[in-house]
Design brief:
- The chain is α/β, with parallel strands linked by helices.
- It has a single domain, classed as 3-Layer(aba) Sandwich (UDP-N-acetylmuramoyl-L-alanine:D-glutamate ligase).
- About 45% of the residues lie in helices and about 10% in strands.
- The protein has 12 helices and 9 strands.
- Strands 3-2-1-4-5-6-7-8-9 form a 9-stranded mixed β-sheet, with helices on both faces.
- The chain is globular.
Amino acid sequence: MAAARKDLLKKVYNMVPPMLESFHKGQLGRVGVIGGSEDYTGAPYFSAMASAKLGCDMSHVICEPGAAAVIKTYSPNLMVHPIMRQSKNAGASETASSISAQVVDMLSRLHVIVIGPGLGRDELMQDTCAQVVAEARRQGVPFVLDADGLFLAQTRPELVDGCKECILTPNVVEFARLAKAKGLDVNDGEPADLCAKLSKAFGGVTIIQKGPADYISNGEHTLVSDGEGGLKRSGGQGDTLTGTLATLLAYRKAYHDGIWDHDGSMSRSETLALAAYGGSAITRECSRLAFLDKGRALQASDLTEHVHTAFLNTVGERKETPQL
């Protein structure tokens, strides 16, 4: 392990709460994944389960009723809320405001939200999420935008401009769309420089540019996560990343809330970057382990069972954990 990578992961380790008997249910993370439409039920499940497998106490999926019925059959461990509506399924009195109000009512019970897995481009779904993002930002609830959640940043950049409590996770195609929305040429510069430029264009939003190496930047500082991953590029692996990021952001809250004894030397800006770096490193290790196991047959679901092992291999468990 390169020295810089080892040092960064050591800091991630210091941000992760130990497992203590004094903690109560919910202190180690309450995450909400918003997405899940009729056509896409796997993505929010993969995200929420990655969150749970990394140690989040309570993982919620907020989705369409049709998606909820299916996702509930995937796992009894997730809390599934059939709140979202696609335009064709909305009642006459159901609007983006009335639907988002139900989601907003949940924000006080959540530490972090993920928006995008299985969301789709339906206008009502997008409008609902736009209102949720605005309120999450007002309340200071950190959020991760991925997949069709990134369409919000592309088409309504004011929702995220200057936000220091969010992470965008574009792949190559999504990065190009975001760059175009901000008038940047993706062919003009090296990947690390482009990631920093796009972050600056969004006012310092943290961006994880996914690829053969992941570039992480807030416009001022850029990290490179280049741990070995798998060679299969099956759809859905990014959902493991969003769930992992969500739990690390919840751990970040626990760190800054001081729910265990530590020196508190890391700033919120530093811990946000560490959450992004740690999420990337764990997900890349997940992909590597799943590929070793499945080879070219690898599917996104194969990453889920490797989340904990990937965490142990990269970050490591706290020494305060009792031996079971």
